[in-house]
Specification:
This protein is an all-alpha fold. It has 17 helices and no strands. It folds into three domains: 154 residues, Hypothetical protein af1432 (Orthogonal Bundle); 123 residues, no CATH class; 63 residues, no CATH class. Belongs to the dGTPase family. Type 2 subfamily.
Length: 400
């Protein structure tokens, strides 16, 4: 795992880290920056994009209008990037690439999170379906329009690879899902992303940081919403053991401080487990290049078996007690109605769309027309979707 210098003031990285000097480049050729690496530029482009700003009004678990302190896609994304940077430093990876993948990973979520995605996938079923990860790739390669010379953000190959494959290969014997989303298949024809191989360790770190963040913070938001009580955490292996040790040391701690201390230690336990497990995997596999990580045949950055079981237990608990709680399901049912109503109305009357979106819609063939409507809808924030639905159909119960 010998280190090497990468220049521009960065610390020496491990041999299996992605080297920005060996980047496969961008779809559209650009001159290099004298002051920033390719991945620093990617991170900055992501942060300054319209899609990034929209995350502040998109649902994580609770609709953005419900309360001020629940997490949104933006705050979740920032939390994921913080954890991912910690991993990058622990393994001496390219921190900028790791952060870029973490910051862009949720760009494709439509309004109301998974509820909106379910509707769009159903509406788009005859036209190749809808997948939020594929939509994120579509946003950064086509839909963002900030530059004079190209559509999209023209991110480096390694950032796009991480976005597309951070959860694992999309084709071949190790594919994590059946079928290849149409937007990814189309872009892969232009710029092949090696979809049968695993992603870089930087992307893998961003992916597991997502698991750590939402498994912790959805518990926290569930407590804030009153859907679960602190005592309910005793049935969980990880959170329950942490609760027990805090109570032993601080028996008179207020509930607010107790909850915050649980969440802080919850993240720390998972992060430390991933570092230990990943270091064992690196020692066993002995990668000497980023391509050795891609060809390892397994995800290297992962939980131990014991922690994986605890994380799965927490996820099951969240599904039963938070995600499928009657109060949440009621709101999400209304949210699905909003997205479906809007899709059908735009399809029936394209003139309702802004001119830059609907001007040529009637002349498009059916599949392209449906995809354009899905593109427009997926870019909406919760608040804009609610306003647009109120304008066209009247106020929606349970959504303000």
């Amino acid at each position: 795992m010998g280190p090497r210098s990468i220049g521009l003031g960065r610390e020496p990285l491990n041999a299996f880290a992605v080297d920005h000097r060996q980047s496969r480049g961008r779809l559209y050729s650009e001159s290099e920056s004298a002051t920033r690496t390719a991945f620093q530029r990617d991170r900055d482009r992501i942060v300054h994009s319209t899609a990034f700003r929209r995350l502040k009004h998109k649902t994580q678990v609770f609709v953005a209008t419900e309360a001020d302190h629940y997490r949104t896609r933006l705050t979740h994304t920032i939390e994921v990037s913080q954890i991912a940077r910690a991993f990058a430093r622990a393994f001496r990876l390219d921190e900028d690439l790791t952060e870029a993948v973490a910051l862009v990973h949720d760009f494709g979520h439509p309004p109301f999170g998974h509820a909106g995605e379910r509707v769009l996938h159903r509406m788009m079923a005859p036209y190749g379906g809808f997948d939020h990860n594929a939509q994120a790739l579509r946003i950064v390669t086509a839909l963002e329009r900030r530059y004079a010379e190209f559509d999209g953000l023209n991110l480096a190959w390694e950032t796009l690879e991480g976005l597309a494959k951070h959860n694992g290969p999309l084709a071949g014997p190790h594919a994590v899902e059946d079928g290849l989303p149409q937007p990814i298949e189309s872009f892969d024809a232009l710029m092949p992303l090696d979809l049968t191989r695993f992603a870089s360790l930087e992307a893998q770190c961003a992916a597991i940081s997502d698991d750590i963040a939402y498994n912790t913070h959805d518990l926290d938001d569930g407590l804030r919403a009153g859907l679960i009580e602190l005592g309910d955490l005793r049935e969980l292996t990880l959170a329950g053991s942490i609760l027990q040790e805090i109570e032993a040391s601080y028996p008179f701690l207020s509930n607010d401080r107790l909850a915050n201390e649980i969440m802080r230690r919850h993240i720390t336990r998972m992060v430390e487990d991933v570092i230990e497990t990943t270091m064992i995997n690196l020692e066993r596999l002995g990668p000497r290049h980023a391509d050795d990580v891609r060809d390892a045949g397994e995800t290297i950055a992962r939980f131990s078996e014991g922690m994986r079981a605890a994380v799965d237990e927490t996820r099951s608990f969240l599904f039963q007690r938070v995600y499928r709680a009657p109060q949440v399901m009621q709101v999400m049912a209304s949210a699905e109605t909003v997205v479906e109503d809007l899709f059908r109305r735009y399809a029936a009357d394209p003139a309702l769309l802004p001119a830059e979106w609907g001007g040529a819609l009637e002349k498009m063939e059916e599949t392209k027309r449906a995809r354009r409507i899905a593109d427009y809808l997926s870019g909406m924030t919760d608040t804009y979707a609610i306003r647009e639905h109120s304008r066209l159909f009247g106020p929606m119960p349970h959504l303000g």
